[in-house]
TrEMBL record:
One of its GO terms (molecular function) is single-stranded DNA binding. This is Cell division cycle 45. It comes from Hibiscus trionum. It is found in: Nucleus. GO terms for biological process: cell division; DNA replication initiation; double-strand break repair via break-induced replication; mitotic DNA replication preinitiation complex assembly. It comes from the Eukaryota. Belongs to the CDC45 family. GO terms for cellular component: DNA replication preinitiation complex. Keywords: Cell cycle, Cell division, DNA replication, Nucleus.
Amino acid sequence: MDALKEKGAKLKPLLCACILQEPSKVLIVGVCGKPRLGALKGNAFGLAFRHAAEETGAEFFHELFESSWIVLDAGVVNSFMVKLTEKL
């Protein structure tokens, strides 16, 4: 994200998904190009993660302390990505 910023490129959310050792689980991590405003706006990016996961109907784990990562069932990753894109 810093490299894009230095080049003057428009900042967009960056998502990375990786398969976990736990069967059929995928970790998705997101970094938002916009600065976190915590007290002013809350974590809109983290809320988008949570709402997209809830809408898939799949079981998921979402750490309340850090809301820019989520563990999902592998079968719903595509659906999650589509829903997350709609929310951002």
